[in-house]
Amino acid sequence: MVPRPSRPTVQDVARRAGVGVGTVSRVLNDLPNVAEATKRRVQTAIDELGYRRNSAASALRRGTGITIGLLVDDLADPFYSLVHRAVEDAALENDWALLALSTAGDGERARRQIAGLASRGVDGLLVMLPEGSREAEVLHGVEAGTAVVYLDRPPVSADADTVLADNRAGARLGVEHLIARGHRRIGCLADRAGIWTSRERVEGYREALRAAGIRPDGALVHSRVGPHAEAGGVIERMLRLPDPPTALFTANNRVTAAALRALAAAGIRLDMVGFDDLELADLLDPPLTVVEQDAERLGATAALRLQQRLAGDRGPATHDVVVPRLLVRTR
C-alpha cells in the first residue's frame, strides 16, 4: 500500500513562512498585531502547502480559535484554585480555550511548560513567575507579540502588564490589628524569602511595628516555614526566648495551617492573624482573623487585561493592584 502523504500542519506553515506558530494562529483567527506583509507570507505558505484547518479542533475552540495559558505555583492550593476559577469564567464568556498548569514553583518546569504552549500557538498567557525566575528565561521561545499578563508576582525587569495584591498593605493591616490588641512581641512566620510575595509581607510586618514605635526583632522573624514539624520547632524556639512572642502573624495559608497544627500539638494558644483565609477558619476556637485577598478579583482583572490585549490594545503597560481586607473574627 502506498502511504498517504501527511497532512500539512500549522508548524509546516510557520516554517514555510519563516514565522512562529503563534503568528500563524493569529493570521488564521484574524487577530490584530500582525503586519500586512507577514499576513501575506503566511497566506502564501497556506496556499502553497494546501493547508486546511482541522475542523474538529476548531469546534473544540468554539469559534474564536483563541487559546490562553494560565501558570501558577499549584492549582491545588485554595488561593490559586480561586484564581483559576475566575480565569475559567472569563475564558467561557469569551469562548477561549484555557490550558492551566502548575509550575510547582520550579523555573525550569515553567520554562518547559510555556515552551510547550508556545509550540501549540497559544495566543495569550497569564503567568505567575516561580521563585528566583526571570521572565526572559521562563518565556524564552514565546513569540514577540504574544499577550502576557503577570499575575501575583511582577516580572524582574520588564515593564509589563501586572495584576498584584498589595501584600505590604495587607500585612500592615494584620499586624496593626495585633498591636491594637495590646501585643508588642509579635512573631512572624513566612514562606521562603526568595518569593516576592513573602518578602513584601514580611516588610509590611516590619513597617507596622516601626509605625507603632516597636523595634523589629530578628529573633521573631522566620522564613522557610512549611511542614508541621518545622513550624513546631520554630514556634518552640521562639517561646524559649527570654522575651517570647505573645502573638503570631503568619504570611500565607499553608504557613498558617502549619502553625495552627503545631500550636494545637503543643497545647499552646497564641493570638494570631493569618494572611489568606482558610476553610473552616471561622469554626476554630478562637476563630481565626485573617487578611483576605480577593483571589477571584485578581484572576478576573488579569483575564480582562489579557482580553484587552488580544483585542488589539497596544497602550503602555498597566499595573493593577488589588487591596486585601482584614476579616476580624470573634466569638
CATH top-level class of the largest domain: Alpha Beta
Q: Please name the fourth-level CATH homologous superfamily of the largest domain.
A: Response regulator
Label the CATH architecture of the largest domain. 3-Layer(aba) Sandwich
Total of domains: 3
Helices and strands: which structural class?
alpha/beta
Tally of separate helices: 12
**Total E-strand runs:** 12
Beta-strand portion reads 15-25%
Low-confidence segments: 1-5, 55-63
Quote the average pLDDT.
88
- Tell me the CATH topology of the largest domain: Rossmann fold
Q: Helix share of residues? A: 40-55%
Gyration radius from CA atoms, angstroms: 24 Å
Separation of the first and last Cα atoms: 79 Å
Strands of the largest sheet, in order across it?
A: 2-1-3-4-5-11
Secondary-structure element order, N to C: HHHHEHEHEHEEHEHEHEHEEHEE
Major sheet, described briefly? Answer: 6 strands, parallel
Outline: elongated
Describe how the helices and strands are arranged:
Blueprint lengths: L9 H8 L3 H8 L7 H14 L5 H6 L6 E6 L5 H17 L2 E6 L4 H13 L4 E4 L7 H4 L8 E5 L10 E4 L1 H14 L5 E4 L6 H16 L9 E2 L5 H12 L7 E4 L2 H14 L4 E5 L13 E4 L2 H16 L8 E4 L2 E3 L4
Parallel strand pairs: 1-2, 1-3, 3-4, 4-5, 5-11, 6-7, 6-8, 8-9, 9-10
Antiparallel strand pairs: 10-12
Helix pairs in contact: 1-2, 1-3, 5-12, 8-9, 10-11
Protein name: HTH lacI-type domain-containing protein
Organism: Cnuibacter physcomitrellae
Pfam families: LacI, Peripla_BP_3
